[in-house]
Amino acid sequence: MIEFSELRPLRNPVMITAFEGWNDAAEAATDAIETLELAWHAEPIAEIDPEEYYDFQVNRPTVALIDGVSRRIAWPTSRLSIASPPESGRDVVLLRGLEPNMRWRTFCAELLDAAGRLGVTEVVNLGALLSDSPHSRPVPVTGSATDSAAARRLGLEQSHYEGPTGIVGVFNDACIQAGLPSVSLWAAVPHYVASPPCPKATLALLRHLEVVLDIPMPYGDLPELAIAWERGVDQLAEEDSEIAEYVRSLEQQKDDDDVPEGAGEAIAREFERYLRHRREGQS
């Protein structure tokens, strides 16, 4: 059982999760959690005992010098923190973790127990995957919700993926089976630029998270970093004719796709969000 430090009562808390590893292409999902931790001054409250879930020969502990003299071991694990976003009437439980190497069902049960004791009313799981999407187009974000109606209401592109899954998919299913409303959001990272970071994918996740939770997200300098990242990939593609041709074929394929139903509503939501952030920046 996860042991918490002394806690204040939380206001209708939502849990947002991301896990390093298979679920975290270019570290876009965990970077989103880290962005929220820093911007919202999240307070660490607990961590999972890693002994039962991690293979330390796969995910090795690290050693660091303290004051240049003593050494401290940092064990790979999953950590919980809480934050109170400005202009929001609810608190957020942030989970930035590492995909476990074993006992996934027990791991999920422990997280669900922690969520219950914290009074969590819904969960949003963030992930990122490699795809054949072009870097020069908006990052596709697919997802799933408790039901298809909720997915449509949230403007999610319904995922039709079938195959191996990671801890994000397993925990999302565990939440649903436990009767805890849960949403998963997956950003598609271009596979030809898979090295972290990918600020454009991180930004896409935060923008969709803002819609799902109706909580203003702290984008910080992510919009500028996303533009710089895209320009950098443009330059790399220009230096290799084969890559440039491949990117053009992906762009053509993307542009030829039919406009999805409900795109007008999605554009309107995006414009409203832009105006809100602009007003906040001028205040």
Question: What do you see in this structure?
Answer:
With 283 residues, the chain is an alpha/beta fold. It folds into 2 domains: 14-219, Rossmann fold; 240-281. It has 8 helices and 10 strands. Strands 2-5-6-1-7-10-8-9 form an 8-stranded mixed sheet, with helices on both faces. The protein has a two-stranded antiparallel sheet with strand order 3-4. The radius of gyration is 20 Å and the shape is globular. The mean pLDDT is 87.
Could you spell the SSE succession in H and E letters? EHEEEEEHEEHEHEHHHH
Q: What is the percentage of strand-forming residues? A: 15-25%
Low-confidence stretches: none
Radius of gyration: 20 Å
Number of strands: 10
Strand order of the largest sheet: 2-5-6-1-7-10-8-9
Q: What is the straight-line distance between the termini?
A: 45 Å
The 3D shape can be described as globular
* Number of continuous helical runs: 8
Find the structural class using helix and strand composition.
alpha/beta
Helix content: 25-40%
Mean pLDDT: 87
> CATH H level of the largest domain: which superfamily?
PAC-like subunit
CATH class category label of the largest domain: Alpha Beta
The number of distinct structural domains comes to 2
